[in-house]
Amino acid sequence: MSSSPRLRSLNIDNINPHVKEAKYAVRGELATRAEKYRARLAKGYPPSPPEETLPFDKVIAANIGNPQQLDQKPITFFRQVLSILEYPGLLENEEALKSAFGYKDDVIARAKWLLKEVHSVGAYSVSQGVPGIRESVAKFIERRDGYPADPAQVFLSAGASSGVNTLMHIICSKPETGILVPIPQYPLYTATLSLLNARCVPYYLDESKTWGTDMGAIRDALKKAKSEGTDVRAIVVINPGNPTGASLAAEDVRSVLEFAAEEKLVVLGDEVYQTNVFKGKFNSFKKGLRDLQKEVPGKYDNLELVSLHSTSKGMVGECGHRGGYFELIGFDPAVAAEIVKFVSISLCAPVIGQSLVEMMVNPPKEGEPSYPLYKEEYDGIFQGLQKRATALYDAFSQMEGGSMYLFPAITIPKKAIEQGKKEGRSPDEFYASRLLDATGVCVVPGSGFGQKPGTLHFRTTFLAPGTEWVGRITNFHEKFMDEFRD
To answer: Per-residue confidence at 70, pLDDT binned at 50, 70, 90?
Structure first.
């Protein structure tokens, strides 16, 4: 029997199965459809035949934290410094920079210092990151927490995602390796575990307590995983939470650290939203650990903690420049050396992103020429985010069957669930799909982040400018419930 010749080396059946298994909902099918709608609208509104008119004139990408795509303005000081780093020839006429373009003396001084440290943003740095920038990060951590930080334990990365990828590769040594991951969670963690053929050990956050950690649920998840032969090596804590927005109290941070020390688990503290706290304050895991070590000398000295931060979120919002860092605490020096080797394989993080990290952790200070504008811009972004977060909170609280934390719970009528089944969609996917088609607002179904069985949610960011689009969601929800009411 003859067979047709193979046309290509690769097909969907012989590529890495772990890539096919991985899921990343924030850039899934709905996001792809939203981009198609955006492209149609870019041709003109209303569209020309034969395309149908869309029931909205703008797409709102509330599915992913991408601030500047949604018109968040970059901080002037950061971009002015970056412009000189990209083209040092601007320094040949400093007076023109100041008189014609408004560059302040501290902008020029910072650019000169960074150029001295990096030599050129077009050159590789040492793999762990530019030493002078790592020193700035260590000083920032010390100012924030009140405890010293060692620049030798700081790694500069291409955003926090790259740091997570590095650490997961180090931790996941076999298919039986497991990592405790909060549910709901940012899908980076489950996707990376899938790629590494390792096990996600889910623990559910307590929705009734504003998505706080539930130590009973964490202990139960660990016990169950061990009974199934999983070698649990680490626990992920996202603080403030993504997608929930919850910020952990100091007592919750302490409880996680005590548990990790007891069970010999690495703590992965994802703290990229640490400036997005509108009520209460941010409590870092580094401070929590140092407080414990001070109170009980010796007991927590070998607890391994990694804290991660990024230039992508908060008031900086420079996602595309890919800047971030992570700090190791309590690691065996031999393991730290292997982490250095691992990051060396990728040579280094983008040097322009490293430079942004330096400015994020060391912004203009009061009394410096750029400080008034920096503070005005920073506070303006913060207040805008707070206003939109409050608008979303109020809107979701008033929706029928809704509740709030930017990961709102929704109740969907049986008729809608049945219609979703006919279309091959889960109930929350069906809801989010209808929402996009009707309003142009792209959110992520809760199943993409994980949710307790029997519950339904969707995740939205609050980065899009204005609050008009919030009304689109509430109006849609009312019509949706009426259409499918039992």
So the answer is: low
At residue 428 the predicted structure's pLDDT band, cuts being 50, 70 and 90, is confident
- Distances in Å between the Cα of 77 and the Cα atoms of 109, 130, 178, 262, 470 are 12, 21, 43, 45, 32
Q: Is the model's pLDDT at 176 over the cut of 90?
A: yes
Residue 107 has pLDDT above 70, yes or no: yes
- Asked if 41 and 57 touch (Cβ cutoff 8 Å), the reply is yes
What pLDDT score was predicted for residue 399?
A: 44
Residue-by-residue DSSP string for 106-171:
HHHHHHHHHHHHHS-TTS---TT--HHHHHHHHHHHHHHHSS---GGGEEEESHHHHHHHHHHHHH
Question: On the CB side of 162, how many CA atoms lie within 13 Å of its CA?
Answer: 28
Mean pLDDT of the chain: 87
Contact between 115 and 123 under an 8 Å Cβ cutoff? The reply is: no
Cα torsion at 273, 278, 279, 282 (round to 10°)? 30
CA gap 448, 465 in Å, rounded = 25
Can you give the pLDDT at residue 48? 59
Q: What is the mean pLDDT of residues 278-285?
A: 85
Question: Phi/psi of residue 266, each to 5°?
Answer: -75, 135
From CA 78, how far away is CA 111, in angstroms rounded? 10
Question: Residue holding tokens 């030798």?
Answer: 152
Half-sphere exposure of 141 (CA within 13 A, CB side): 30
Tokens standing for 180? 């405790």
Local structure of 202: helix, strand or coil? strand
Instruction: Name the pLDDT band for 30 (thresholds 50, 70, 90).
Output: confident
The Cα-based distances of 177 to 191, 225, 228, 337 in angstroms read: 15, 10, 11, 21
Q: Quick one: DSSP state of residue 6?
A: P
Query: How is 417-435 classified by DSSP, letter by letter?
Result: HHHHHHTT--HHHHHHHHH
The single-letter code of the amino acid at 111 is A
Check pLDDT > 70 for residue 24: no
Rounded Cα distance, 8 and 159, in Å:
35
What gap in Å lies between CA 167 and CA 267, rounded to an integer? 11
Q: What would you report as the CA-atom Rg of the chain, rounded to the nearest whole angstrom?
A: 24
